[in-house]
Queue: 2 jobs
Job 1
Amino acid sequence: MSTTTAYDDLCRRHERQHRLAHLQSIASWDQSANMPAKGNEARSLALAEMGGLLHQLATDGALKELLARAEGEALDEVQRANLREMQRAWRASNALPQALVEAKSLANSRCEHAWRSQRPANDWAGYVENLREVVRLHREEAKFLADSSGLGLYDALMDQYEPGMRAAEVDRVFGDLRSWLPGLIRDVQAKQAQETTLQPVGPFSKAAQRALGHDAMQLMGFDFEAGRLDESAHPFCGGVPEDVRMTTRYREDSFMQSLMGTIHETGHGRYEQNLRRDWLGQPIANARSMGLHESQSLSFEMQLGSHPAFASLLRPLLVKHLGDQPAFEEGNLHRLLTRVHPGYIRVDADEVTYPAHVILRYEIERPLIEGLIEVDDIPALWDAKMMELLGLDTRGNYKDGCMQDVHWGGGLFGYFPCYTLGAMYAAQWFAAMRREMPDLDARIARGELSAVFDWLNAKIWSQGSRYETPELVQRASGETLNPAHFKAHLQSRYL
Amino acid sequence: MSTTTAYDDLCRRHERQHRLAHLQSIASWDQSANMPAKGNEARSLALAEMGGLLHQLATDGALKELLARAEGEALDEVQRANLREMQRAWRASNALPQALVEAKSLANSRCEHAWRSQRPANDWAGYVENLREVVRLHREEAKFLADSSGLGLYDALMDQYEPGMRAAEVDRVFGDLRSWLPGLIRDVQAKQAQETTLQPVGPFSKAAQRALGHDAMQLMGFDFEAGRLDESAHPFCGGVPEDVRMTTRYREDSFMQSLMGTIHETGHGRYEQNLRRDWLGQPIANARSMGLHESQSLSFEMQLGSHPAFASLLRPLLVKHLGDQPAFEEGNLHRLLTRVHPGYIRVDADEVTYPAHVILRYEIERPLIEGLIEVDDIPALWDAKMMELLGLDTRGNYKDGCMQDVHWGGGLFGYFPCYTLGAMYAAQWFAAMRREMPDLDARIARGELSAVFDWLNAKIWSQGSRYETPELVQRASGETLNPAHFKAHLQSRYL
Ligand SMILES: [Zn+2]
Ligand SMILES: [Zn+2]
């Protein structure tokens, strides 16, 4: 006698999960930003309890039939899209046997934990023992996901972060990139070798940097009534769409990394803050993908940050909070913001060399998952590719080489391409904006950044997961992923 | 074929509730201390969802039989006590029909919300309309609780906050208090009229007060690896035992209220921080009662705060953070810490006049719940009792009279006695300490406050809810509640 549709039932279930996940997000943020040491065990147990509960709700036995019934119900276009995302979430939660989920989680934690001391000790031999088990389990995961989805092994993993993206497409765009990037890096370096750039002279107090960061977030349109900036050891953008919790960390000898990191996270934060309010609680409201998310942070940090006019927007904030100094002169500031320098560490890389790091990871992690290479092959491949792509010698230097970050140790296989796909999408957005708004650069120079933000809001933020990525990209920019825009952007900015 | 006892099953269920409630506590603290305005709706929905889930777990149909079966199992003394507390929790969660719980919650929220604007407008007529409904529902609640427990109406409500305490006992101890308190207040005022007391001269920056508060918490033994101090509009002590979240608020023109409030909350915080770690997650670990909790905060704020030696412990902290000034001279500081002044507002009251406010509330709320008076009778009773107990005229001044706080509007009937029971217990602890440690006052004067803290830890904090209150009090102090110690304390401190 119930008049409730299966679709309505599903919506209520997702809303419930959304509300409970809210508490998990805030408590996780608190764990990084506030929590004193002795709270850690109880917090971890509480979060694990909630993780188990959310998993239980996501794998509830009733869902399969509800999803099937909802398929046959009369739904409008938005509901249909929401149902598609519900099904995606259901598949993601139900594809793996519980024993594998637990084994993965254990192996990842063990590998990450040991890595913290193995990395400073340059202990590849120790690390590889744990990594081997992580890789074994993630190959198993890839097999399960591939079997249930019909995708290739690597595609099945990548699909978790970038739904719809396939290795064949990554090969196409990264193949193009690979053909011109090393040459471009050399050309830019040759050009910049002629320039003199003054380094800012510190120290820069935390309090001043905190105030500077707030003003920079204000410049980038962050809504402080729906979010905060705090400190944590590893900067991230967390919280919930209604209350975004960004973090940064300050070094008194240098402010640029924290400042540009804050601007980067503000891009992530505004995407979340502007997801459609009336959809929140449903999967359709969620940000489309990791690559799309990164396209927002990179629109802020790179597309705007390396814009020739951006230095003049930033300069008054620096002078206000840090006092004036010769390095803050606009031309010098722009040179600082666009400095290209091949280095070992991905997270410290500039806009031009960053994709080389990502190509390298992709070219290793894909055959690794596909079983074509083994973990013991990683260092030699790493050394060869670092030399080829960036001209750097990493032999024997594991800690600044294949042990520099813990993505693989933590099981994040298939994630790396998102960084560079994000950079490509960001370039594509700005190309589209310039077609629609021929005076865009003049507006940016006048500080009218809302031209950019309004476009991103209309085309990306407010669209959530309504469309599959290719359709979203097509609707936003008039074409699907086109790496030519990224190339044109780098050439025009850096040559 | 299960070898699990019903008792083990119950323990696991309570542990699960404890872990989920952890997230609720931290998210509630965050709502008061951190959350920006636009996060409120989503946070409230998330907390309500969790509240519903915890209620569902606490009223699970299987519990009744599990509790009955556990009764018959072989349990040691600690397990037996834990089972007693599980039963208490079960009765509390299951005594009321869900419809009444929801109606109460709605009426309380409505009354509290309206009170925020009605109080400044002195709008008794408006307030009384909402309060009437709140009282009606809480009389209904009292009836349900009394029917299921066999207690009197008021006792049934009070038992939620102070298990085992009965109105007959409150009558006995408050009756004694009432006979000598007004005379004592007059005598102290006459004595203090001879004294000259300098007021501290501000302003006192927030940053300096924050640092002062931290040092005061350190002096009082707060473990900063298991808790924090932050700011909120209404100071409280929240969080979880493993990670206590205290809050305060700062006024730049005055530091004393925030400082002594912080010392008060530190007493609550240390009780929580020192609940037995190996019991945490089970009801037996919990603080015994609201009165016992208040006996800790008042041991810190009043028993130590009004101690003649305390000014000399506080003075160096004031000088360090606020600079020196004549008001910080030790004798003057002690006079400031022990200033007695009858006033309208309970929360601003000193140690001597505070019980008068509580007696007044008790003498009104009890007959109100018992149906002997109606809400319309409150103002006249209030006026008469304020005149009788404190010599103050409150006629027509509702906002500083019966509308000054929102305990009744929020449905907290039966709670007020805990404040003064706490003050009495605190005096009783110090009397017992002095019997056991004849040099206690000398040790306090030397700043060896650990003598006090170790005693409280051994006798109260680490005992959790192992014993019913009378037994806990007897074991701690060698006798059950004896108001003579409170009288002796006030006389020796203030006359
Ligand atoms: Zn990012
Ligand atoms: Zn208190």
Job 2
Amino acid sequence: MKDIVIERLDERGVTIESMAELVFELQKQYLDITMEEAVENVEAVLMKREVQNAILTGIEIDLLAEKGLIREPILKIIQNDESLYGIDEILALSITNVYGSIGFTNFGYLDKIKPGVIGKLDKIGKTTGKVHTFLDDLISGIVAAACGRVAHSHGDD
Amino acid sequence: MKDIVIERLDERGVTIESMAELVFELQKQYLDITMEEAVENVEAVLMKREVQNAILTGIEIDLLAEKGLIREPILKIIQNDESLYGIDEILALSITNVYGSIGFTNFGYLDKIKPGVIGKLDKIGKTTGKVHTFLDDLISGIVAAACGRVAHSHGDD
Amino acid sequence: MKDIVIERLDERGVTIESMAELVFELQKQYLDITMEEAVENVEAVLMKREVQNAILTGIEIDLLAEKGLIREPILKIIQNDESLYGIDEILALSITNVYGSIGFTNFGYLDKIKPGVIGKLDKIGKTTGKVHTFLDDLISGIVAAACGRVAHSHGDD
Amino acid sequence: MKDIVIERLDERGVTIESMAELVFELQKQYLDITMEEAVENVEAVLMKREVQNAILTGIEIDLLAEKGLIREPILKIIQNDESLYGIDEILALSITNVYGSIGFTNFGYLDKIKPGVIGKLDKIGKTTGKVHTFLDDLISGIVAAACGRVAHSHGDD
């Protein structure tokens, strides 16, 4: 299933490298980490079934909202990424959670600052017909989980 | 938005009374509770925006899976309510959570035992073309949250 | 750290076998599982750092409450395992979460039914000077997580 | 119980105003908010029993760790606020959760940036005998929950 997940992310404009760059940027200040290690950790997160289910479900919701196949009033709420709609955060946190609560801080930080690909997705979602309501949060969740995994692996040294 | 939520639940075969009966059954052994109070507490849960978003989103996913408008591999996973797919539980727990962690125990119990309307929905979902993968968990979440609200209100006496 | 965790659980009257029995009982109806496999899965859960932190922290709180070293009003609340105190559930759910949301249902069921060692701990906590407010929930969390791990491993076959 | 909570926070160097300032700073860019409204929202968060339990429990753990009354290996882990120890985040998130998942982003941001009183507590915890491992996260959780409450109240206008 991992290949489909990577393919779907790619369709939506997200590469493993673009996520690994954020892992690298967040961790380099604390740990001696390489981009190669960052890529490995993002890929390990994408191997988890719980993560795959969250990504595939969230991307479908974004896509169905783009096509207008979701009924009101939830359709506009999702299309407009309304701040009081928290289901996207909930799905993303189920990803972050996979490596424990230490990922929550990075999730929130990424979701607030929106660096790199996260900000790019958010901007496209807000300025075009594309809907990235779930996707930008999912990416924050994947990157935060990968950071948690990196921290665990170094902590276990 | 509450009226739309009640209408959508009704469309899918769930009445406020059917949820209130489960709240009454779960709480009567601990507290002096009436059906009227159970109904009030279910309605109070349905007033919460977080709850409304989870219900409306989950029902749409069930419906879109019924219509085959979600792509594989997630389509079959949702249609078959596969045990390793946990996104339905995640949405339901965001409802339960609204009155704190004390609701989690009732959520799990309801999801396991599937009494009343929950079992009815589960059976229909497993034996007909209808998809209730999210709905039965959402109902467990609503009932568990209402039980938590009842416990808080009596505890605050 | 795993040895200390097992030792502390043993001090408090909980063996790996007593937890594995509950995993076996819960899973045998769905899967072809042996007691040996149940033991392996409980041990795998106890290897996780997040789990170890939750167990060691929860046991310390129970112990400090037994000794009266926690201040009021939280002291009596913990000593009496008051139903509106949900911090014990929160710690337990962080354990269950380690193998994803599919564990939540079993957690709630175990916490409600209190089979085997869970009921034994609960009874001792309610009838003696011993405090098991956190421990019984932690055990439900460990067993539920082990069930989730079993389900994942069979699902991946 | 609210008075005891405020008193205990005060003992540990945290005033309602110091938390309200952070709510004001985070929300003023999005909403027309006054310091008075920020104070009201922090106080409303502190009225919730779930929040009170998390605060009183977390402060006790910090205090008992200061006094060396918690056993190793968890004692040093808590005293040193080790990054792989996530129980403090878990307690804090149970506070943030009280107004739904929309608070998670602010929680993570606050926990990363550590503005105002949060940074002050963190620094004291890292440079003196005082232990603020739980407290600084609890404050991030309270402020994030208050921001969520503000957003809901304005959203409901």
